[in-house]
Amino acid sequence: MLLPLPTPDEMALWDRETIQSVGIPGITLMESASREAVTALVEEYGPVDGCEIHCFAGPGNNGGDALAMARHLTDLGADVTVFHTRPKKQYRAETRTNLLWAQKLDIPLIHLASVDLGALPQPDIVIDGLLGTGFAGELRKDVLALVRTINRLGERAFVLSVDIPSGLNGLTGTPQPEAVRADVTTTFQVPKLGLVMPEAHEFTGHVHVCPIGIPLKIQEEHPVRHHLITSDIFHAFPAPTPSMHKGKGGHLLILGGSEGLTGAPHLAAMGALRAGAGLVTVACPGGLADSIKGGSPDIMTLPLETGTHWSPSMMEILLPHLQRFDAAVIGPGMGRSSNTPVFVLSVVAEQAIPMVLDADALFSLARFPKVVNELKEQAVLTPHPGEMAMLLDTDAATIQADRLGAVDRFTERSNGTLVLKGAGTLIARPGMTCLSPFSEPNLAVAGSGDVLSGVIGSLLARGVAPMEAACLGVFWHGMAGRALQEDYPLRGNLASEIAGMLPHIIPSNQE
């Protein structure tokens, strides 16, 4: 359901515990890593017999992996040369062992300090083992020159990066300031957090996850904070039963709509219905009910007073009805009139049922940090970066520059479940952050977020726990965006078509 995404420090702990507590030698792990990486290379590139291969080996474990790969590739008939960044005597531990083994096998070992980088012959394949996931800060000038050399050679060669492209930050997935552009990255045991961040995609190429023997017991005893959502999340989907009726499908309340913004609650309602909600009712100012319904007999409405504006007194009308609903979505198209925040706060204060807080409800909440701090897990907030900036009293550029940090700052102050939308949507609660694998241009359309809020609300109404509902809703929404690329390769799809795609893309084993 969730794939661990260790940070560099967390992965180093797994390695250390495997070696020290279990007693599996580090050289064994390195040998497994190198063999798996060679297998991935042959799978992607094809036979290497007769190929000219340059292995660039730094002094760390990645360099050791590259040196071990040189042995295996030589045995497969390749013409391998290892370029090492430090004098041989400076290599330590398992990396030094592999260097000595390569030397005994007469594999050419050339210190890069004696090489004119511009005069290097053009290879068929480049193995990038310069830097590992522990790299932080900015590249030194000499290493930056090597990264640029690999990228120049890579214009005509196949490039494989060991564990992570050199120069890429293992935590954020950003180049520092440049990184190797690999055709394939072989990462070991599980993906590292930085590898799956949207910013990393243009550098990693196809990522192969290679098992190397880190025991599951070690992983379970030292859990990580970040996880990647996989299709197994559909195991949380409440499967229909032959005897079910509409009441068992959950009754979702949607509070939204204002003059000129009646489409948002309509799209949220359609998202909820297409996600399987049994009943959906939109509560709104009475004068907007027909427009929100939009001619759809599937959507019920609950007019709150006459007129087209929200008022605090509407809560008195709504309150007796709340017990009829299993969950609520608050905010789509609600507008930002002066009375709206008072109404929103009065509903949120009840926290009587699970709720999704979206769009203009977030604008209202941002004005009252104390209320945000008192939210419970059953409150799911779905901000885009601009709305997240309001919640944290900053600007959208700051949020986008450090999305993980923004999520951490929010979960330190609130127990609410957070969905920070965007490429690689983040879903979080205190102590856990999950990452969506989707970055779909077809989702970048007005109303897409309203559909998502309806999907999550529908799952909450059917009894799915908040964190699982948010993860499943985001993943399902992402699948819909990807599926729409087939008919709309250059975008142009509508938000309503995202909703319409939902029932057609549930994995067959979950139907």
TrEMBL record:
Gene3D superfamilies, per the entry: 3.40.1190.20, YjeF N-terminal domain
Positions that bind AMP: 421-425, 449
The enzyme's E.C. designation: 4.2.1.136, 5.1.99.6
Reactions catalysed, as given in the entry: (6R)-NADHX = (6S)-NADHX; (6S)-NADHX + ADP = AMP + phosphate + NADH + H(+); (6R)-NADPHX = (6S)-NADPHX; (6S)-NADPHX + ADP = AMP + phosphate + NADPH + H(+)
UniProt entry tagged with the keyword NAD: yes
Residues that coordinate or bind K(+): 62, 128, 166
Keywords for the protein's UniProt record, in alphabetical order: ATP-binding, Isomerase, Lyase, Metal-binding, Multifunctional enzyme, NAD, NADP, Nucleotide-binding, Potassium
PROSITE patterns (UniProt xref): YJEF_C_2 (PS01050), YJEF_C_3 (PS51383), YJEF_N (PS51385)
YjeF N-terminal domain: residues covered: 11-220
NADP in keyword set: yes
Residues of the YjeF C-terminal domain: 229-509
Residues the record lists as binding (6S)-NADPHX: 61-65, 132-138, 163, 264, 333, 384, 450
Alphabetical list of Pfam families matching this protein: Carb_kinase, YjeF_N
Co-factor: note: Binds 1 potassium ion per subunit.
Cofactor: Mg(2+); K(+)
Subunit structure: Homotetramer.
Similarity field: Belongs to the NnrE/AIBP family.
PANTHER family for this protein: ATP-DEPENDENT (S)-NAD(P)H-HYDRATE DEHYDRATASE, ATP-DEPENDENT (S)-NAD(P)H-HYDRATE DEHYDRATASE FAMILY MEMBER
Function: Catalyzes the epimerization of the S- and R-forms of NAD(P)HX, a damaged form of NAD(P)H that is a result of enzymatic or heat-dependent hydration. This is a prerequisite for the S-specific NAD(P)H-hydrate dehydratase to allow the repair of both epimers of NAD(P)HX. Catalyzes the dehydration of the S-form of NAD(P)HX at the expense of ADP, which is converted to AMP. Together with NAD(P)HX epimerase, which catalyzes the epimerization of the S- and R-forms, the enzyme allows the repair of both epimers of NAD(P)HX, a damaged form of NAD(P)H that is a result of enzymatic or heat-dependent hydration.
Official protein name in the record: Bifunctional NAD(P)H-hydrate repair enzyme
Organism expressing this protein natively: Pseudodesulfovibrio portus
